[in-house]
Amino acid sequence: MKDKLKKRWRKLIYIFGIIGPGIITASAGNDAGGIATYATVGANYGYKMLWGLTIIAVGLAVIQEMNARMAVVTGKGLSDLIREKFGVKLTLFAMTILFIANFGVVLGDFAGVAASMELFGVTKYISVPLVALFIWILVTKGSYIKVEKILMLFTFVFFGYIFAAFMVKPEPNWGEVALSAVTPTFDMNTGFILTFIGMIGTTITPYMQFYLQAAIVDKKLGLKDYKYEQLDVYISSLWSNVVQFFIIVCTAATLYVAGTHVSSAAEAALALKPLAGNYAFILFGAGLFGASVLAAAIIPLSTSYAITEAFGWESGVDYSFKEAPAFFGIYTFIIVISAALVLIPGLNLMNLILSTQQIAGVLTPIIIIFMILLVNDKRIMGKYINNKLQNAISSITVILIIACTVALMVAQFL
Questions:
Q1: Does residue 245 surpass a pLDDT of 80?
Q2: Cα-Cα-Cα-Cα dihedral of 46, 197, 305, 312, to 10°?
Q3: CB atoms inside a 10 Å sphere around CB 2
Q4: How confident is the model over 293-330, as pLDDT tens digits?
């Protein structure tokens, strides 16, 4: 009996040792821009878009599982596979767009660090340099396992949004919430459509695909770990969806009811203070800070992994700066320049951030199409190619993202 119990504990510890890349990737997707989007959804449209989260969660889970499967079967990152199958020119095109898009997202996350700390009276001239230094030292001076454990701690800040939803007064109408979550509603006006598109675009992003696959490879997981890593990505997709759900519920129950419109996560936190109380304000602000720090660490890492893999350079957190100069050089460049730009007085970064988000929206379907072609190549994946359902869901996701991107561009042009 004792031996069986020991085996079970060992297996449980082993499983928890594998889980990590999926949770970190999905949590980083709920960054400053994501939180702002979900807060805007709740504040401006109440519970009307909750049903869309289910569609997003299913698409994200299928795509992330494809990533994990390619990683454990091939032992290679996504950039590496793209270069081998599609050639250097297409790879260079994808990496150029990825760098521009990710740089803009990191800018937004350092702006999120600044905004969240200013809510508590800490100037950005203190918070941003300290956070930039912390994440730079964490990655350049640590091992993969150490970095993963510390970044996993930051995922706990997202519980704050769940607690905040139960603390607000008046309490959410949970019957209405449940009904909205399963009943599709759509308002045929530009504002609603663009916000709905933004909700999709901020959840499934290019950097998530590159980071997840590279992290699994860097962690040295193989086929024997596949079923546990599969569990990791499915749980993480659900977890990401739950966080988004409660952010929308929290702001819908308070800001939407009060008729308060917001356009950023910091505005949402400030608006919650008189309506939902000091604790809800603190939880929302702390969540914004933790989410911004996590994403500010992960997105430059994703960029470094992708670019160095694409050109066959040494990559991985377990290397030293001397052993992988390009990997750590790209990481350092993105952090230093983006943090410095956020500190420039009077500089309006919003247009730059929005432009790079649009670029990311263009790149996302391209990367997913690459992934679908790769994961269905028997020479690469053997018997682990997609089944018909996985191909159907991933293809529908691509079509949906393309349609949203085109609609957004047309709306902005008009």
A1: yes
A2: 170
A3: 6
A4: 888 888 899 899 889 988 888 888 888 888 889 999 99
Query: Tokens standing for 143?
Result: 């091992």
Percent residues over pLDDT 70 in the chain: 87
Q: What is the DSSP string of 263-323?
A: SSHHHHHHHHHHHH-HHHHHHHHHHHHHHHHHHHHHHHHHHHHHHHHHTT----TTS-TTT
pTM score of the predicted model: 0.85
Query: In this predicted model, what pLDDT tens digit does every residue of 337-384 receive, in sequence order?
Result: 999 998 888 766 656 565 666 666 677 888 888 899 999 999 998 888
CB of 327 closer than 8 Å to CB of 195:
no
The domains found in the chain, sorted by start residue, are: 37-413 (1.20.1740.10)
Measured CA to CA in angstroms, residue 3 lies from 10, 11, 12, 51, 137 at distances of 10, 12, 14, 47, 42
Find all residues with CB under 8 Å of 399, minimum gap 6, and list them.
none
The rounded distance, in Å, linking the Cα atoms of 32 and 269 is: 12
CB 257 within 8 A of CB 170: yes
> Do 145 and 215 contact (CB within 8 A), yes or no?
no
CA-angle at 149, arms to 144 and 155, nearest 5°: 125
pLDDT in tens, 75-125: 888 888 988 888 888 888 888 888 888 888 888 889 888 888 888 888 989
Cβ-in-10-Å burial (0-12, 13-18, 19+) of 393 comes to middle
> Which structure tokens are listed for 252?
């819908």
Predicted pLDDT at 1: 58
**CA separation for the pair 73, 221 (Å, rounded):** 9
How far apart, in Å, are the Cα atoms of 168 and each of 116, 164, 172, 192, 279?
A: 20, 6, 8, 25, 9
